[in-house]
Design a protein that fits this description.
Layout lengths: L12 E5 L11 H9 L2 E4 L2 H10 L6 E3 L5 H13 L4 E4 L12 H9 L3 E5 L4 H9 L6 E6 L4 H10 L6 E7 L3 H12 L3 E6 L7 E6 H7 L6 E6 L10 H13 L4 H12 L3 H11 L1
Parallel strand pairs: 1-4, 1-5, 2-3, 2-4, 6-7
Antiparallel strand pairs: 7-10, 8-9, 8-10
Helix pairs in contact: 3-4, 6-7, 7-8, 9-10, 10-11
Length: about 280
């Protein structure tokens, strides 16, 4: 057991300083003061950090701490703490550690018996959550969606039955395809897709997956994707679903389109219904 009394034990401190996710006015006075008064700033990208610090007239010495030098840099930061120096860790935007470097460093600093102190600020996934219209608690922040299709499908299945809102980060690359896979694996759930948080082009797309897919027209940016939990519906028997599919086919619809239509109508997974239909047929 480790007890930390952050401002009473006289130990050197690693500050985890949240920085703006877009709008610089969200930089807190406390964050500015910490960055001005620590001995060293450890930054994920020193070029971006210099721009931020220049804006707020911060001239503290800076070192690099990123994913590719994390182990070596962590030991260097512990060495600084052992010399009695205070260090602030910042990422490119938002909180360090959250889908950004810092987890390994925090663990090692705690093991070395130094303070780890958070400095509050912006968080993209929390901003998205509270304004999404989806149930805000409980929730699960998963992190970045997988890029490869098979890994993405496996990831969605892993959290499919979580009885809560799940939150992901994703980039614009293959956005429409990613949302189609979300529909295939989870059905036509309520989602919220958020981009450009705190900036002039901030945008929320709220609604069932298929409606959001139709509305997506952006070509750049990073997104927060919030997925509502599976709603309890009146249970529909597989026989009923098969009869509906056969009815669609009898009216001249192709098998794949019939399955897609029935899956959408009853908010079930298209992939699962497709497999069940062909198992029976």
């Amino acid at each position: 057991m480790i007890k930390q009394q952050s401002f009473k034990n006289g130990q050197a401190t690693l500050y985890l300083v949240a920085t703006p996710i877009g709008n610089l006015q969200e930089m807190t006075p406390r964050a500015i003061e910490i960055l001005k008064t620590v001995d060293i700033i450890a930054a994920e990208d020193t070029r971006n950090a210099h721009k931020l610090c220049s804006h707020f007239d911060i001239h503290t010495k800076m070192i690099s701490h990123h994913l590719f030098n994390e182990n070596e840099s962590a030991q260097g930061i512990i060495d600084l703490l052992e010399q009695g120096k205070n260090v602030a860790l910042i990422s490119d935007a938002g909180y360090p550690v959250i889908s950004d470097p810092g987890q390994f460093l925090v663990k090692k600093v705690i093991e070395a018996d130094f303070n780890v102190v958070p400095i509050s600020g912006s968080s993209a996934f929390l901003n998205g959550l509270v304004a999404s219209g989806l149930i805000a608690q409980p929730f699960a922040f998963i992190g970045f969606l997988e890029h490869k299709e098979n890994a993405l499908r496996k990831q969605l299945q892993e959290y499919k039955d979580f009885p809560m809102t799940t939150i992901y980060y994703l980039s614009v690359h293959k956005l429409a395809k990613t949302l189609e896979i979300v529909y295939d694996e989870l059905g036509n759930r309520e989602i919220c897709l958020v981009r450009e948080l705190t900036k002039v082009h901030e945008e929320f797309l709220r609604g069932p997956v298929l409606e959001v897919i139709e509305a997506v027209d952006v070509i750049k940016g990073e997104f927060v994707l919030l997925i509502g939990k599976s709603e309890e519906e009146e249970e529909i028997s597989l026989n009923t679903l098969i009869e509906e599919i056969d009815s669609e086919i009898a009216s001249g619809t192709s098998v794949s389109r019939a399955i897609n239509a029935v899956a959408k109508r009853y908010k079930v997974s298209k992939n699962e219904l497709y497999a069940q239909y062909h198992d029976i047929k």
